[in-house]
Amino acid sequence: MVSLCTIQQLPLDEVKNFVFINEIYGIQLAERLEQYITFLKESRASGGALDTKTAGDKGFAGDFLCLLEGNTLWAVIFASKAGLVLPCIPQKLPENIFREAVPVLSAWFLGKKVYCVSGWSRGVQLIREALRSCAARGREDFNRQEVEHRRYLFMCYDGRRCRRDLIPSLPVTPCSLGDLESLYYLQSAYDTVEVLPKKYPFKAETCRANLQRILSLGNVVAIASEEKTPSGKKFIAKANFSAVSWRFALIGGVYTVEQHRRKGCAGRLVQWMGDEAAKSQRQAVLFVREENLAARHSYENAGYFFSGNYEIVYY
To answer: What pLDDT does 60 receive?
Structure first.
């Protein structure tokens, strides 16, 4: 029998071990789980309570849900208060557990805000079915209409596969908070073109805050043009680590200004980041839209290979 509980109802080491084993299926969740565990230990050590605002700033305000069949843990799902759902669900999830999990998850999601589900295909399919079941109940306030459904290829880095003779030796610049204004136009273009569904409005303050956050973590790199501006460097391409877990570093935010595309900027950035992640014993990974053949070819030349199917659904 399939059941659902929160992370607080299971031994924390059991949940962490499951996510560690299945880390590739939930890198963003794994990063949040590690932050949660660290914050929880610090809070307990100081005798304080888990502060909601601080938890939100850390990126894990929400619920970690555990899906079990009997005593066997089959999935961990993070559902943020803002409505982001990140499943860590192995591709091998048996069909009978999948079917039994749908109504269980559907009951939990009733009345909960959901705007985006992101993860490997098996996990996203399960959450989609649960949300469809919510909508099928006929309650208008629980209707889950999909705004956009995107399919990606999930790729992993192997430096031995990199065709370094095809990667231009462009200098890569690790960026800091001082580069925020110089990078903002690239980040805003990336959010508009690659992230936001057509019906979602662009919010400058959200874009700027996200860029500031990843810059403060030292997770952004860029390529500058030879042209100088009064304010300093003019960046023509950027990328960042969007999540760093125990064994993986997820690359996102890859964007090159139109006039500098097809010159190897993106390939150079992700190749550099792949080598950089390897220094800390992590494997760099990324996902690319199925239809973006140019990007796929560039990433393959840079040493990335197909590992599975990834999906993002917006509501």
So the answer is: 56
Q: Which two tokens stand for residue 223?
A: 């390529």
Cβ-contact 9, 69 below 8 angstroms:
no
Could you tell me the CA-to-CA distances from 295 to 86, 239, 268, 310 in Å, in that order? 25, 13, 12, 16
17 and 74 Cβ atoms separated by less than 8 Å: no
What are the residues facing 287 on neighbouring strands? 154
**Chain segment 187-215, per-residue pLDDT in tens:** 999 999 999 998 899 999 999 999 999 99
Average pLDDT over every residue of 146-162: 97
Strand-strand pairing, 283-289 and 248-256: parallel
- Helices vs strands, H then E, count in the chain: 9, 12
Neighbour count for residue 305 (Cβ, 10 Å): 12
Instruction: Enter the DSSP assignment of 202.
Output: P
Q: How many Cβ atoms sit within 10 Å of the Cβ of residue 39? A: 16
Nearest partner of 179 among 227, 225, 211, judged by Cα: 211
48 pLDDT band, cuts 50/70/90, is: low
